[in-house]
Amino acid sequence: NYNQGIGFLMVDGANSFGPGGYHRTVIEDTLPVTMDITKKKVLPKGALAIILHTCEFPEGNTWAKRITKQAIKVLGEQDEVGVIAYGPGGEQWIFELTPAGDYEKMVPKINSASIGDMPAFGPTMQMALNGLKKSDAAAKHLISISDGDPQAAPPSLLQDFTDNKISISTVAIFPHGGTEIGLLRNIANATGGRYYFPADPNELPKIFIKEAKTLKRTMIQEKTFQPMLGFDSSIMEGIDGVPPLHGFVLTSLRENALTENVLYTIAEDAEEGESDPVLATWRYGLGTTAAFSSSLSNSWAKDWVTWEDYRAFVKQLLMRISRTEELGHLRMWTYNAGGEGIVMVEDFHPDETFLDLAAKVNGPGDMELTIPLKQVGSRRYQGSFPINDKGRFQVTAVNLSGEREDRAYGGFIVSYSPEYLRFTSNWKTLQEIKDATGGTELTGNSKAEDIFNRRAPKDSSQPVFDWFLVLLACLIPLDVAVRRIQIDWASVAVALGFSKSGESTETMGALLARKRTVSESLKQQGEEKPMQTSGTTA
Fold first, then answer.
1. Angle at 482 between CA 480 and CA 485, to 5 degrees
2. Nearest to 261 by CA among 249, 248, 276, 279
3. Which of 234, 231, 239 is nearest to 304 (CA)?
4. Domains of the chain listed by start with CATH number
5. How far is the C-alpha of 180 from the C-alpha of 493, rounded, in Å?
6. Which label site among 157, 279, 408, 488 has the fewest CB atoms less than 10 Å from its CB?
7. Strand, helix or coil for residue 12
8. What percent of the chain has pLDDT over 70?
């Protein structure tokens, strides 16, 4: 770490340095070597073309632009790269083959690209072939990402790629079926490329970086060589020589007075004074970093693992880059108080001189800041900084003036967000809520019966108008029934068992008898009347 004096070592070159995709990264900035080897005559350049057909899966075009930029970052500055897509005007270059060193010029073109639904592979692949054939790159490669539904490229076109030693790797993303999968697999197999079928778009960056690194294989020098001793470093203390190695990665030593080229090799056709670093160290900030461009395992260092001084070499290498605790005269105390980080330093040096102290703070979220430490007492200095996030805070106090180079280290951890410390109970609001609801105030000594007690019921009034409306609605049909329905109460009485059915039968018999009597009487009166009429006429 730049401010904390923590060491860093990069090793196992086949999967690190340039081939590992660390070119133009923060890690490269910490190393005593760079992955930019444009001045090396032994390294041929490569050319990479990318065909994008990504409009048919969720956020496909966003993914396409992201993975394209990540793939370009892996390439060397002298490598060429170009991107093709089917847009509103048909198949077209987003930008033609261009040195990867012009990355900043490529980014706006990639971000503004309009990527449509490609109807056929043939036109875009032919365009890529023509561009790659014009390049003088030693290694040429094409990557195509698609769902596989465009019309297949003719076999003769795939043969042209093979004849020109241009490999094609295909990436199937959300294909419609087995036919599309087979088409993309056949393209890769016919040209010596690789076929990928990722289940998750999150795998795409890793795939594109891997394919872009195909051009970087030329950075790997797999040959047996004898490393030469260079800078007299503590790493080689007690070691007169080292065994041969069987491979390394080309890098360039930084032109800096702090750089130590401990082990190196010289290529057969190298110019005078030109060498390739194998082990280099340098001072980076308050720490030391090292780069071992070969391997410390059986792959390239099979003779090293059986070497009698192997353990001593590794131990002294790690000691060289490790942070050493120096017995200085500064003592530091750090703590968190009220949402602020407090740094307090006390000077115990025999010479009671004023110090110009500053504290460098590293915190979560890549937070970096430098705060001045002001004298607050006799030989005591203090400063503070705001805490806006939880995590680990590392602090280094450094003397910025005078001949003394004392420094002190400290730090602390905030396990939860500081915002929780800025709020207290609002007793006024709680009291208002209690009074408005008739509640009680509970304390830590409250008993269960105080919390769950049964309160006396309270009287309350309710309007009765609604109940009268319900009653009126029930009386209306009852009133109509009383007026319109005649009830045979005798039958009801019989049905309810209050009267016997025999009494009803006697009554009915009497009525029938009376009816017969009346009928006979009327009949007799009718017979007498005609006789009276006849006598009068005579």
1. 95
2. 279
3. 239
4. 8-15+222-321 (3.40.50.880), 38-219 (3.40.50.410), 330-421 (2.60.40.10)
5. 91
6. 488
7. coil
8. 84
